[in-house]
Amino acid sequence: MHYLYDVQLWDRIETGVEFLIFVALMIAAIIKLGHNDFLQALFYIVLAVIISPWSGFERVTKRYILVSVFFLGLFVGYFS
């Protein structure tokens, strides 16, 4: 159970999850571009750029931005 306290392991897991979410959002943007929904595709691309491990945002700032943009997307109706 000592691996639960390994900070480097959790950082690598978080980076992997960020990359997987980045890929999923880019795929969603490509699908929405195929359906001629430019604004929703742009929304997904902006989310992908924010979540990207190479974005340069601090992780705490990235979390707050993503949660607020997610609620904005719910309000607009993108996730229905």
UniProtKB/TrEMBL annotation:
TM ranges: 12-31, 38-57, 63-79
What keyword terms does UniProt attach to this protein? Membrane, Transmembrane, Transmembrane helix
**Name of the protein described by the UniProt record:** Uncharacterized protein
Q: Which organism is it from?
A: Nostoc paludosum FACHB-159
Q: Lineage of the native species?
A: Bacteria, Bacillati, Cyanobacteriota, Cyanophyceae, Nostocales
